[in-house]
DNA sequence: CGAAGTAGTTTGCATATCTCCACTATACTG
DNA sequence: CAGTATAGTGGAGATATGCAAACTACTTCG
């Protein structure tokens, strides 16, 4: 069964499992987004949590990565900077660009939001062994280790 | 009780990995949604793929599960039924309600969209062993086995 | 039986986001 | 240099979605 078609089936199965996970978390994500910061639109949370997961980046990278247009991204980044959630510094190699990163406060807020949301998820793994849970975390870590290679 | 702190760290790590995965897939999801069906809004794809992952359900369950309100859900379900992507049947135990399920065409379209999107993801697991990939699929399956218990 | 509650639909309105476009500042190319 | 391309910002109008309320059909409870 270690054939090419088995491999393809495995990849399809991975796609379906990722789909299930994303579907299952979508409601929570949207609700978290709404409560991330009272003065911000939901999409701001998508930007913040991408920066939390993948680190500092240029606004256009962020826009591409989260699937928003540059205009909205720019506006939201501006608001988050005004609220002290993000810091921006000029890009070292290209003075047209900037690099945005979460501030300490921004990181704390994302972490708090994720943990709050995660509570509704922890019940599912309550019966898991530490080994299985650790394995899943490690494998997901490998899966998301690289920044998305977007089209 | 002292072992719970390691456990809690594991759970936090799981939350962060899920966050990374959801963040990484968000752009792809949004783009897939736009191309799922030319005459449908993006959110229709969220409904369709939830049904694909978790099977037939009542409209209100769907709305709750994907984090949309009942009115938008109802409208989108109506459009998808008109396009033949969904079938609806009266709920067996409560004639106020209905149960919606993907039609064969709807299932095919979701599968095609997922596979198309997945291609951009498969590159990441190309170097993985079948064992590791199978393990991840199995663990994700356990994680998403139950329908979301929403609050 | 009647009253109250629930599932689903529909409508009107508010808001968030997208699309396109223009503009500035900087980078690259010939 | 001059001309073109790119990063980021901002605006105007269009669309998608959320929210609240009304309405029908059905269920449940007293």
UniProtKB/TrEMBL annotation, chains A, B:
Coiled coil: none annotated. SMART domains: HTH_MARR (SM00347). Signal peptide: none annotated. It holds the Pfam family MarR_2. InterPro entries: HTH_MarR-typ (IPR000835), MarR/SlyA-like (IPR039422), WH-like_DNA-bd_sf (IPR036388), WH_DNA-bd_sf (IPR036390). Gene3D superfamilies: Winged helix-like DNA-binding domain superfamily/Winged helix DNA-binding domain. It comes from the Bacteria. Residues 7-145 form the HTH marR-type domain. PROSITE patterns: HTH_MARR_2 (PS50995). SUPFAM superfamilies: Winged helix' DNA-binding domain. This is HTH marR-type domain-containing protein.
């Amino acid at each position: 069964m270690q054939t090419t078609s088995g491999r393809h089936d495995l990849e399809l199965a991975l796609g379906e499992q990722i789909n299930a996970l994303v579907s299952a978390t979508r409601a929570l994500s949207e609700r978290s987004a709404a409560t991330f910061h009272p003065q911000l639109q939901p999409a701001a949370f998508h930007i913040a949590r991408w920066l939390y997961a993948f680190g500092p980046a240029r606004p256009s990278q962020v826009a591409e990565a989260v699937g928003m247009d540059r205009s909205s991204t720019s506006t939201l980044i501006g608001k988050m900077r005004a609220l002290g959630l993000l810091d921006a510094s000029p890009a070292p190699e290209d003075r047209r660009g900037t690099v945005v990163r979460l501030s300490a406060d921004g990181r704390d807020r994302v972490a708090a939001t994720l943990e709050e949301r995660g509570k509704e998820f922890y019940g599912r793994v309550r019966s898991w062994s530490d080994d299985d849970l650790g394995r899943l975390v490690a494998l997901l870590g490998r899966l998301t280790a690289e920044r998305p290679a977007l089209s």
